[in-house]
């Protein structure tokens, strides 16, 4: 281990990474540890981070503002694809490759010998970080303490932190494993490890981005979202960046109890895991985008897009962002979005998103054709269509009944 002189650590200031700094120095010959925090919108979690990192043994802290990169190059492409993994809107999944790219940039700049992270050996994030690192720095050594040290649980981590005078923002009673960014907040651990326990949505302090639908207003909130080629460009007629739109929709959705998800999902590593997610703005964007696609995309394109959305979601969830297949699928998605332009209005009410209108200059919906009233559509045309479409069915039946001569 003496060849490891300088380590770049993915640093959040949470329990895992706070403990890792002194552990690295103890176990890697007092190596220099450079902490790197990727700002993907975790807000107040960045406060006091530099002081804490230096106090626990880091030589310096980089805080990288990755918010625009995260939104424009990861969130929006995934949302345009309609990618959903088992109902989960991939908030942690697509943040990891974005952060990992920033880690590699600093590691190469600093001439580091290794990159370390605080992901456990049970989870998905270890794969997401390390596949991205291998893409940008294939020969970089990766240190994953959870796969090396003798610590067995978060409780033992807290013991280690207390023994090393590491300040923590949590206690054993509030020791949920959380991941927060501008897109979502995840909750795992403690009482949530039993799928029979109902999440404590109404308990003060449990939800951070949302309120329980029971605590949402008794009157609905209307919101309109404008899209250009599948990208959100305005809320309620006000032009703004995609990042600003997400923040605005987080406020509106959170206040109305939108975007809560309680799920037992299938991790890449093979373990089923129970988590609770808050994704208020993201849920609204996915809903509005889907409503707009219903009138802008033809049947075959829409159905093919829905099929590849499953593959796209699995690639993102499994850490395979920087792969030829993901890039190829994004190229397909971008082509499908060329006419996904228009406005969607939704009614938000106690956790529900209700369609309240959709308009597009590229709409394939024609009231004149679809109406139950008089139209230019010749209904007699359907007879010939059905005869041709049903011919294989008719022939098979005639063979089965001995009605067809050889």
* Contiguous runs where pLDDT drops below 50 for at least 5 residues: none
Q: Which strands sit side by side, in order, in the main sheet? A: 3-2-1-4-5
How many separate helices? 13
Radius of gyration: 25 Å
% residues in beta strands: 15-25%
Mean pLDDT: 95
Number of strands: 14
Structural class estimated from helices and strands: alpha/beta
Inertia-based shape: elongated
Largest sheet: 5 strands, parallel
Element-level helix/strand string: EHEHEHHEHEHEEEEEHEEHHHEEHHH
Helical percent range?
25-40%
Structural account:
- This protein is of the alpha/beta class.
- The protein is built from 13 helices and 14 strands.
- It has helices at residues 15-27, 49-55, 67-81, 95-110, 125-136, 154-163, 242-255, 280-296, 299-317, 324-336, 367-370, 381-389, 391-400; strands spanning 6-10, 32-39, 60-65, 114-116, 141-143, 177-180, 185-188, 221-228, 231-235, 238-239, 260-266, 272-278, 342-349, 352-359.
- It has a five-stranded parallel beta sheet with strand order 3-2-1-4-5, sandwiched between helices.
- Helix 3 packs across helix 10, helix 7 (242-255) crosses helix 8 (280-296) and helix 9 runs antiparallel to helix 10 (324-336).
- The longest helix is centred in the C-terminal third of the chain and has 19 residues, at 299-317.
- The protein starts with 5 loop residues before the first strand and ends in a 6-residue tail after the last helix.
């Amino acid at each position: 281990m003496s060849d490891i002189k300088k380590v770049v650590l993915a640093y959040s200031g949470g329990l895992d990474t706070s403990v890792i700094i002194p552990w690295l120095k103890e176990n890697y010959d007092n190596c220099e540890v450079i902490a790197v925090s990727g700002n993907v919108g975790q807000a107040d979690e960045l406060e006091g981070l530099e002081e804490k990192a230096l106090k626990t043994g880091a030589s310096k802290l980089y805080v990288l503002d990755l918010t625009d990169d995260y939104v424009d190059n990861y969130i929006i492409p995934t949302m345009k694809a309609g990618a959903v993994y088992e109902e989960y809107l991939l908030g942690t999944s697509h943040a990891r490759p974005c952060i990992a790219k920033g880690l590699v940039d600093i590691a190469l700049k600093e001439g580091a010998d290794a990159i370390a992270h605080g992901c456990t050996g049970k989870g998905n994030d270890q794969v997401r970080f390390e596949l991205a690192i291998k893409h940008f720095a294939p020969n970089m050594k990766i240190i994953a303490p959870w796969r090396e040290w003798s610590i067995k649980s978060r409780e033992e981590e807290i013991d280690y932190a207390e023994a090393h005078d590491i300040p923590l923002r949590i206690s054993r009673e509030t020791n949920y494993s959380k991941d927060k960014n501008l897109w979502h907040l995840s909750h795992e651990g403690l009482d949530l490890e039993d799928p029979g326990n109902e999440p404590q949505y109404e308990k003060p302090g449990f939800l951070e981005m949302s309120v329980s639908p029971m605590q949402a207003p008794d009157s609905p909130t209307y919101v309109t979202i404008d899209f250009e080629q599948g990208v959100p460009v305005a809320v309620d007629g006000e032009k703004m960046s995609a990042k600003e739109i997400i923040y605005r929709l987080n406020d509106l959705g959170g206040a109305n109890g939108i975007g809560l998800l309680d799920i037992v999902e299938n991790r890449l590593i093979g373990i089923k895991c129970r988590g609770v997610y808050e994704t208020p703005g993201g849920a609204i964007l996915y809903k509005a985008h889907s409503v707009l696609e219903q009138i802008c995309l033809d049947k075959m394109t829409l159905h093919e897009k829905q099929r590849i959305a499953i593959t796209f979601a699995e690639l993102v969830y499994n850490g395979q962002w920087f792969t030829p297949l993901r890039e190829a699928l994004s190229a397909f998605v971008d082509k499908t979005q060329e006419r996904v332009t228009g406005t969607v209005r939704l009614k938000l009410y106690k956790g529900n998103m209700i369609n309240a209108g959709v308009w597009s200059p590229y709409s394939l919906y024609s009231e004149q054709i679809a109406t139950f009233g008089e139209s230019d559509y010749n209904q007699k045309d359907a007879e010939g269509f059905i005869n041709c479409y049903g011919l294989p069915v008719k022939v098979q039946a005639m063979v089965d009944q001995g009605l067809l001569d050889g």
